[in-house]
Amino acid sequence: MTREVFIAHVEREQEALRGFLLALCCGNKGDADDLAQDALVKAYLSLAGYQDKGKFRSWLFKIAHNTFLNHKASLRCTESIDEARTLVSSTVADSEFEHQDLYLALRTLPPKERSAITLFYLSGYNIKEIAAITDTSEDAVKKQLSRGRDKLKEKLKN
Amino acid sequence: MTKDKALEELFLAQKPHFTDNDRFMASLTSRLDAVEFIKQQQETTIRHYKMAIVVAFVVGIVSGAVTITYVLSTPTNVPLFTFSLQSTFLLWLAENSRIISATALSLLMTLGIISIISNVHDIMKMRVSY
Predict the structure, then answer these.
(1) Partner residue facing A97 (CB), from B3, B16, B24
(2) What interface predicted TM-score (ipTM) does this complex get?
(3) Global pTM?
(4) B112 in any annotated domain
(5) Across chain A, which distance is largest between two alpha carbons, in Å?
């Protein structure tokens, strides 16, 4: 795949990718866009390993998911829900989004559950596809979805 | 597994619409330019490393062959080198010239091998960092 073809594909998929990362970053648009750029550069450098089977978006999401997990691992700290509330409400870009409660609830989920929930409900992937993107078994994805859904509903109820 | 309708609707309602797609793509393009530049620099460095390996290999083979041929072609009872000055140390050097030459040659070959391995290792590291 040439650079021009890659950029054309990215132009088509970038909104979905940024939306996915925005949800994973719980509404922090700056972090989400930085991760999206990092993921796209990684994808560009790994183009030799991409087998064109019409699954460019899934391939991008897989790289973005790994980039997000690495980013989370490098932070090695978890903010409390109060810190999250301050962070989310103070971000200028977040004023565009009405559903900050969802982001706050998502923030309480572990990264893997957050990824599974976002891919399932926001990006519309099925369990098999999520298992492929996150490199886990279908059973593990089912458990993550079930646990994540219960926790989200509980948080949103409060 | 069935979808929870309320959650699905909540996620669909918060689906963001980005208004800065052009800025995002411009930023990505400049990053890709930087990546291309670094890749070119790394390829040039790898080429230089490869050249250094070839030169080290050729120099090692030629100097090794010349020295070994010289050592083997001289009579064993004649020192490889002598000194015009008379001193105990220089005399000792001349008497042990074969051993000293063999040791020096071994050191040179060891350094050459270490240099080649180090260069190959550096090239592999650069390839992995791609």
Answers:
(1) B16
(2) 0.73
(3) 0.67
(4) yes
(5) 50
Nearest to A3 among B7, B25, B32 (CB): B32
Q: Is residue B10 part of a domain?
A: no
Rounded-to-integer distance, Cα B1 and Cα A87, Å = 34
Return the ∠ at Cα B118 (arms to B66 and B44), rounded to 5°.
Answer: 100
pLDDT digits (tens, 9 = 90+) for A71-95: 888 776 555 454 555 555 444 444 4
Domain region containing B118: 19-129
Helices then strands (H, E): number in chain B?
A: 4, 0
- pLDDT one-digit tens code per residue, B16-52: 888 888 899 999 999 999 999 998 998 888 888 888 8
Specify the DSSP class assigned to residue A79. -
Question: Given CB atoms, is A102 within the 8 Å cutoff of chain B?
Answer: yes
**Four-way CATH pick for A3-157: 2.115.10.20, 1.20.140.160, 2.120.10.30, 2.60.120.260:** 1.20.140.160
Q: A 18-57 residues with CB below 8 A of B? A: 18-19, 22-23, 33, 36-37, 40-41, 44-45
Binary contact (A102, B11; C-beta < 8 A):
yes
Q: By the CB < 8 Å criterion, does A10 face chain B?
A: yes
Q: Where are the domains of chain A?
A: 3-157
Residue B7 lies in a domain: no
Q: Which amino acid is at B97?
A: S
Residue B4 within a domain: no
Q: Which residue of B has its CA nearest to A97?
A: B14
Residue of B nearest to A152 (CA): B7
Contact A50, A1 (CB under 8 A): yes
- Chosen for mutation from B2, B3, B4 (greatest number of chain A CBs closer than 10 Å) is B4
Residues in chain B: 130
